[in-house]
Amino acid sequence: MMNKKTTRYLWLPTFVVASAMAMVSCRTNTLPSADGTTKNSRQAYSPSVYVYLNKANERERLDEVGARGYKAKDWRLEVLNGRKEMPANFRWSGGDFIPAASASLPEPNYTPSRQGLDELFVSGSGRFTVKQLEALTDFVDQKAPGKKKYIVDVRNECHGFVNGHHVSWYGYINWANIGKHRDEIMREEEQLFRSIQGKTILAGKIVGANNYVMTDSTWINVKADSAQTEKEVVESHGWGYRRLTALDHGFPSDEIIDQFIDIYRSIPKDAWVHFHCQAGFGRTTLYMCFIDMLRNPDVPLKDILYRQTCLGGSSMYYQGDRPTEQPWRVQLFTETSYLVPLFYDYVQANKKNGYTKSWTEWKKKKLK
């Protein structure tokens, strides 16, 4: 259960949520708009945009007492290092659209433009084992021989490899590192994997269907003959490694988006970039949409979001309309749907300057 300190950052008053949902349904043919309602309006954006504008920053300012409810206490066994195969939920920008994927979009029969997509050389997936990384490396080298390769790891939670298996140090709803900065997380992650080298750990499956609680029947013993961070494994396979410590489930904080833009500007424009989070849907799709916007600023927002979903990603239009969806997740999905168009506006405003102005600076000036 979440304590009172925590819930004030996740729950909005009922009347605010109801009004936001009433204003724009995910069944309409556009995202919650970042455009002004009238040209002469002093308020450039809809009220709902302002409601969600700083929620991510507020979450990251959770105090020590509130953060205790998310403290890591279990090793999550994510993927066993079995066959050499592609990671779960893999897709790439040159892949075919998946007809069934469009069912979650407002206009299922709409076919988005592929302008700039086949030249994007971007892929995404869930977490991977050592053997899956080998399969991914072979795939990229075959599709784009000689290209530089970068993995952008967008996970906030500490994770890495034990005997080639992919594991993470898990806290409730995957928020064990809430409020921590990237350098701190990576330092603690390295120390964590050094500390289990040669030891036996208990690890098991943790999923939402079980309310993110590990049951005794799923636990297994793993002797950590090798324990490595993802950076170590990825670089040993010829990839560059970049890290964004983005909190799971929600829209990223200003600091994380600024870091993403810095990463984008530091990677060669013709390089292959592979994003991954835990499952390969939410955070991975978001950043695949973001890099598509940055590299293809002349493509309409609708086409970018539709095509990233049609490739196999999650829908950025989604506001939690499944009857069984947990209320806290609905809040986070809805927040993302309102703020994604704002990032597209940032791209349009800064494409000529090469995105040298930070998101934080632009947002502060644009939305006073």
Broad CATH class: Alpha Beta
- The N- to C-terminal Cα distance equals 36 Å
Beta-strand percentage?
5-15%
Shape: globular
Helix content: 25-40%
Labels describing this entry:
37% helix, alpha/beta, Protein-Tyrosine Phosphatase, Chain A, disordered N terminus, globular, 6-stranded mixed β-sheet, 5-stranded mixed β-sheet, 368 residues
3D structure, described in words:
- With 368 residues, this protein is of the alpha/beta class.
- It has one domain: Protein tyrosine phosphatase superfamily (Protein-Tyrosine Phosphatase, Chain A), CATH 3.90.190.10.
- Helices cover 37% and strands 14% of the residues.
- The chain contains 13 helices and 11 strands.
- The chain has helices spanning 4-10, 14-23, 47-52, 55-60, 64-67, 130-143, 182-195, 230-236, 254-266, 282-295, 301-310, 327-350, 359-366, and strands spanning 74-79, 91-92, 122-125, 149-155, 159-162, 165-170, 200-204, 220-223, 227-229, 240-246, 272-276.
- The strands form 2 sheets. A 6-stranded mixed sheet has the order 8-7-1-6-5-9. A 5-stranded mixed sheet has the order 2-3-11-4-10, with helices on both faces.
- A hairpin with a 2-residue loop joins strand 5 and strand 6.
- The protein is globular.
- The relative contact order is 0.18.
- Mean pLDDT is 89; it is low at 1-29 and 34-42.
Summary of the model, kept short:
This protein has 368 residues and is of the alpha/beta class. Helix content is 37%, strand content 14%.
